[in-house]
Amino acid sequence: MNILKAEIRLRLSSSFQLDCRFEVSSGFTVLFGPSGAGKTSVLDCIAGLKTPHAGLISINGTPLFASEKSIYVQPSQRRLAYVFQNLALFPHLNVRDNVTYGLQRETVESRDLRCNRILYQLGIDHLSLRLPGDLSGGERQRVALARSLVTDPQALLLDEPLAALDRPTRVKIVDDLRSWNAIHQVPIVYVTHSVREALALGERVLIMQRGQIVAAGAPAELLDPEDWD
User: In whole angstroms, what is the distance from residue 222 CA to residue 33 CA?
Assistant: First the structure.
């Protein structure tokens, strides 16, 4: 079981600063709050796309960033998977080539084995030769997840990737992701500003306001189920 620990202090502007700390284990943790609360910036700091002014980010006690020790691990070396809201698929590459893009250092045999396995697990093996433009929204989402999961990440960061999908498609993708994580046991940090998603997805919720974690616990205890958005 992997443990992700983050203590982040980052000034984003003269009037806004991230100042938060949390520790999450395997399973879904929802990072919840209004637009502008700093949720995506937290993911960016964990992934190494933004550098905190001070703090500590570690996996299983191994620092990825530690200001006091001047430690900064490059994003490509952190073994973290990040799925953006826009998915960022390569439009000129077919599904298989998109999924294996991060496995260039693997042998051909290893790439094929790992790609075939994750495509099958996510139910998109029959789409391997199609281009992203020929896929539905749910299919593109599965391709983006497959590209992230095929690298065997230590943690998975999701920035509202299901927001544009209908509810049945979202539910099916989350069920597939839970099945995958039942085996791999990694922390999944899922950003959303939707009460409905937070209640449906999270085993734990961290509520952010103006750059700080103001509450943490079970979604049903902290969020009003009648406050649909």
Answer: 12
User: Is residue 114 classed as helix, strand or coil in its secondary structure?
Assistant: helix
CA distance 93 to 95: 7
Digit-coded pLDDT (tens) for 191-214:
998 888 888 887 899 999 999 999
- ∠ Cα 224 195 177 (to 5°): 125
Does the model's pTM come out above 0.85? yes
Angle of helix 137-149 relative to helix 167-184, nearest 10 degrees? Answer: 10
In the DSSP assignment, the letter for residue 3 is: -
Strand partners, 67: none
The model's pLDDT over 134-173, given as tens digits with 9 standing for 90+, comes to 999 889 989 999 999 999 999 999 998 887 788 888 888 8
What gap in Å lies between CA 64 and CA 208, rounded to an integer? 23
Give the strand pairing for 4-13 and 80-83.
unpaired
Q: Find all residues with CB under 8 Å of 79, minimum gap 6, and list them.
A: 59, 151, 152, 153, 154
Cα 125 to Cα 115, 157, 169, distances in angstroms: 9, 24, 17
As a whole number of angstroms, the distance between CA 78 and CA 186 comes to 14
Q: Supply 44's token pair.
A: 């960016």
Which two tokens mark 184? 């791999």
Cα separation, 176 vs 188, whole angstroms? 13
